[in-house]
Every structure is written in C-alpha cells, then in structure tokens.
Fold this protein.
Amino acid sequence: MKLTAKVKLLTTEAQADSLKRTLVKANQACDYISQQAWDTKTFNQFRIHKLVYESVRSKFDLTAQLVVRCIAKVTDAYTLDKKTQRTFKALGSIAYDARILTWKMKDSAVSIWTLEGRQKIRFIAGEHHRAMLEHQRGESDLCLIEGVFYLFTTCDIDEPTPKDVEDFLGVDFGLANIAVDNDAVIHQGKTVKNIRYRHRELRRKLQAKGTHSTRRRLRKLSGKERRFATWTNHNISKSIVATAKDTGRGIAIEELGGLRDRVTVRRSQRAALHSWSFAQLRTFIEYKARKEGVKVVAVDPRNTSRTCPCCGHVDKKNRKTQSKFLCVDCGFAGLADHIAAVNISRRAVVNRPSIPTMLSVPV
C-alpha cells in the first residue's frame, strides 16, 4: 500500500532562497517544454524528451535528472486532455527522485539538488510519518506552503491480508452525527458544524468589508476549517478501525458515491451539504483498515434508516424525525442513525438468512 509522508524542511535563509530559485527555474523550464509540446502537438513523454532535452539543458542550466522530471510533469499535465495549453505557477511543486534527493534518516536530513549544487537540509516529522519514512520509495514532491518548504514522499507500506470475518461493525454517516456504529457509539458532528458555520459567517463579513486588514485576516483563516475537519476525520476513523480490529470484525460502510448529484436540499442547507467531508472519512477508514488487516465492505445505503431491524418492515413513515425511528408495523423504536448502522452491518454479512431477530436498541 502506498501512502504519503509529509516532512517539514528546516531551511536556513540561504537554503530557502536557493530552493525558491530552483523551483522558479524548473517551472520556467516546464513552461518552455509545454510551449514546444503545444506548438508541435507532441504529447508523448519519449518524443517530448527527444524534442526538448538538449535545449532545456543549455537554456535553463538544470541537471539532467531534473530536466527529466520537468518533462514528466508536463506530460502528466497533458494526460487529462490536450485541448488547452498548460502553464505552470512559478513556485509550483517539483518532483525529485533518488538521483537528485537522498534521505539521511540518521541525521534527520535530506541531500537535495539546487541551482547551487547539493544542499544538506534537516527535516522534522512526527512519529507516525517518521515510521513511514523507513519504507520510503519513489519520488518526493518539493512544495512551498505559506513560506515553508515541505517534502511529500511516497512510502510503500506492507499490508496484511484482510482476515475473513463473520460479523461487521456497521457505520452510518450523517450530518447531525458524523458517524454512528451498531455498538451505539456516536461521533457527534455538532462541533464541526458549529465551527463551519462560524467560519462561514466570519468569511462573509470580512469579504463584505473588503479592506486590507480583512483580506489579511482572510489569508490567516485560510485552511483552518479544513484542517480541523481533517483532524476530526482522522480521529473518528482511527477509533472505528481500532474497535473493529479489537473485536475481530470487519467494517461495513455506506456506498455514497454521487450523493450530491442525487440529493436535493433547501438553499439554507446547501452549504452544510457541500462542506460534507465523508468521502475523506471513508478514505481514511479504508486505508487505516488496510494497514491493520481489517476487511471493509461498502453496501447499498437505500432504506437503511427506514427498515425495522426487528420485523423488516420498510416505510418512509418509520422515520418520524431526523433522529427518531418508530416502526409503524411492530412499534419498535430507537435512534435512527443507530438502527441504520445495524442494517448496514447486516447487509455486509454474506448469505445471511432472512430471519427477523429481536434486537435491543437504546433510544
């Protein structure tokens, strides 16, 4: 399994300046390569290499391998379509491979090529990412983010074979509660919802004012809400995977692809729906489960919160409110999200007999 480790480079002022100028020069080379590819309608990497390699080496004074990486960057940019000429930001990221970047784990440093030659630069990383770096393979992307240089590097992590299981931990995703499992563990979404609302209102007021100080404040706030949501999703996914592993179960989740295209909501609810980050939460659950050898199954989410887990009756009227479930046939009641999680868990079980069973669900 391939994961990406993020490390922060502890550059001196001179090293930061050298890296910036290297990024600028490399992206200028990318623009030149793109222009040549566009003019000649040549988009194959091997043919572009033959077309521009010598001229790029002489014109931009870059090392051979960095020229190869620039050609690859341009080729990748034209992979999506060839209808628009591609241009590149002056400080856009550049990929480094093992020939122009060496990891020195004992020294917590990297040896990286710049316009001034090789530079040894120290880095800092958390325990999780440092452990991942022991399995570093392939390329590393040099990025400048808010004035700080980072390396995003590919790590090839060994993953155990998922074990066959007889039971699944069902997980229901929602807006009021981010995730609820069939053990009745609730991961509430109130905090995230409040923070998103507060940030949305603050952005609206600052944008309406439009002064230099408000624009400076907007830049400072940029990404803060997204980082908090990502941190929350990491914690929730870690908890779900740990529970499934400790109890010897797989994980059953909803297949929610294309939800935004299918669901219609009121204007006042659109911001909440489109800031929904459950694709990210699902991704986190899946990759953490793969690392731990936990099986993950996606099931059809239709009617999971309208189906009675006791008698099997399906009716829209079973869902009395957003949070309450009351079966109009047998009178069974409970938390709607929890009942949905129970139904999701059952759908993941292969060849389960269609026999109603009594279930105790807390209200």
User: Anything to note?
Assistant: Residues 351-363 have pLDDT under 50 and may be disordered. The chain has two domains: 2-156, 160-188+238-363. Residues 160-188+238-363 form a domain with the Nucleotidyltransferase; domain 5 fold (CATH 3.30.420).
